[in-house]
Every structure is written in structure tokens, then in C-alpha cells.
Design a protein that fits this description.
single chain, mainly alpha, 68% helix, elongated, Cytochrome p450 77a1, transmembrane
Length: 77
């Protein structure tokens, strides 16, 4: 009986600090994940320039039409 009373007393007195404990635990977990994954990524990605990509004739036609319609003189006024 005394141990049951002690457990209920300790849980009620700590109930106001649960949010602080779980916030701190979440912060530590997110910091650990950040530091473990941050070092594996390279800082410079070796990607080719966009203009160097090989596009098909359909994409080039759509792109040309889009640019011509956006830069037409009637739209600029």
C-alpha cells in the first residue's frame, strides 16, 4: 500500500515536468540524427549543367513555345 501511494505521489509531482523531459529527449534525438546524417552528404554535388542534358525533340518544342509565348511583345505590354 505504501509503495502504491509513493508511486502515485511521485507521478503526480512529476506530471508537470513531463513536457520538459520529452522536449529535451526529442531535441537530443533530432540533434543525433542531424549530426549522423550531416557528415555523409557531400557539400559539392557533381551534377552536370542543365543545358548539357540531352532532351528529346518534344521537350525542346514545348520549351521553345513556352519561351516564345512568355516573351511575346503582346504579353510585355
Amino acid at each position: 500500500m505504501a509503495s502504491l501511494l509513493f508511486l502515485s505521489f511521485s507521478s503526480s509531482s512529476l506530471s508537470s515536468f513531463y513536457h520538459l523531459f520529452f522536449t529535451f529527449l526529442a531535441f537530443l534525438l533530432s540533434a543525433l540524427i542531424f549530426f549522423l546524417t550531416h557528415k555523409t552528404k557531400s557539400k559539392k554535388l557533381n551534377l552536370p549543367p542543365v543545358n548539357a542534358s540531352l532532351y528529346g525533340p518534344v521537350w525542346r518544342s514545348l520549351r521553345r513555345n513556352m519561351v516564345q509565348n512568355m516573351l511575346s511583345s503582346s504579353r510585355l505590354k
